């Protein structure tokens, strides 16, 4: 139970500097993130700091009163990473939205945690640059949340996940101390890599308040999009293997399974009947023949028709629309548990077969899309809208999927994070000795254990 003195002290310390929410109805809106299957507790207060000093003051008070703290960005986590715990303080960085600096020569920007990913990308675009990480929620997700979960996205096959774009961090520790890690330089081997440790730590080690990020050169010409349809998953898997092994470097390589395509077609009537798999590919290099090479490899693997190829930005966006419809199409069918596993690219077809087998065994509807170029799959488990929590059959099927990913030399999460939903699986992947190291790191950063309890480390 939170001490009533804590809320009073919080309001007294920060009430005139930033927004402090204590109203019950508003507090309830911060219980959950986008993983709605995680119920979340009612926080005692929500703070929306404007400065790093505000964050420091809030954490100093939380430590002195022993109050749990749940850091939150835009709340787009699909693993329950930002779900509140009962009586906690939710610390939302959404008001920290300043781009402190952007240096086109060094291709570096320093941004606060609440800067929306797309806003940073647009600001970089004014200088012919881009912020490469592009999670599906990039129009609403924040850089702080992207860093905290090491978010990925469609472009990671070429540009890597968020960790590859982070040079340094400003982070506030549980006791209120402010620490800076990394540098603005490309090379830096001074001391332990605390920046890399904090990226993907899911708010369990501290609150990220700002990030120094690497910007990439924006492609000179718009990307060319290739869409190929297949009569079997095996043929699509062969096409992925051919593109990865013999094709040009691609910036996007997405796969949709037949169940997903049927759901999209039932909703939007796009003429996808009879297609058991589809690849959506983009190339953003300078060589005009790259897209044609991709299309040729898809035909070699057995594409049912001549692949569609477009260099027109609007038409490319229309071709990409099929991929973007995957999740909303699943939502038309029921409540969704969106999962996230990764395997070596060579094991991708087998992993999809294992997902289908688990779905059939437990009588569960599963729609699967994949960032095929890096072996990252998103099986979406669909169940009744009226269900409370995750039905037993869905949980059993999901557990089979996680086990299959590990058997195929993969991971239980490629980009969503462990959060609440997979905390009990982490030790299965990393082993007992590694878990001991994880807990030792956690204790060094957060000796009282107040930072995002119940997440990542069960």
Kindly, what is the distance between the CA atoms of the first and last residues, rounded to a whole number of angstroms? 21 Å
Structural class by secondary-structure content: alpha+beta
Instruction: Return residue spans where pLDDT drops below 50 for at least 5 consecutive residues.
Output: none
Q: What is the count of β-strands?
A: 19
Total number of helical segments?
A: 16
Pfam family, one: FAD-oxidase_C
Keywords: FAD, Flavoprotein, Oxidoreductase
GO molecular function: (S)-2-hydroxy-acid oxidase activity; FAD binding
Cofactor: FAD
Tell me what you see in this structure.
Its cofactor is FAD. It comes from Nocardioides kongjuensis. InterPro entries: FAD-bd_oxidored_4_C, FAD-bd_PCMH, FAD-bd_PCMH-like_sf, FAD-bd_PCMH_sub2, FAD-linked_Oxase-like_C, FAD-linked_OxidoTrans_Type4, Oxid_FAD_bind_N, Vanillyl_alc_oxidase_C-sub2. Residues 39-218 form the FAD-binding PCMH-type domain. This protein has 458 residues and is of the alpha+beta class. The chain has 4 domains: 4-92, Uridine Diphospho-n-acetylenolpyruvylglucosamine Reductase, domain 2 (2-Layer Sandwich), CATH 3.30.43; 99-217, Uridine Diphospho-n-acetylenolpyruvylglucosamine Reductase, domain 3, CATH 3.30.465; 220-331, 2-Layer Sandwich (Alpha-Beta Plaits); 334-439, 2-Layer Sandwich (Alpha-Beta Plaits). The chain contains 16 helices and 19 strands. It has helices at residues 4-14, 24-28, 52-65, 117-125, 143-149, 156-159, 194-198, 233-246, 258-268, 290-301, 313-324, 326-333, 348-362, 392-407, 426-430, 432-445; strands spanning 19-21, 45-48, 69-72, 89-92, 99-103, 108-112, 129-130, 166-172, 178-182, 207-214, 216-217, 224-230, 252-257, 277-283, 308-310, 335-338, 341-342, 365-371, 376-383. The strands form 4 sheets. Strands 12, 13, 14, 15, 16, 17, 18 and 19 form an 8-stranded antiparallel beta sheet that branches. Helix 9 packs across helix 12. It is globular and about 70 Å long. The mean pLDDT is 94.
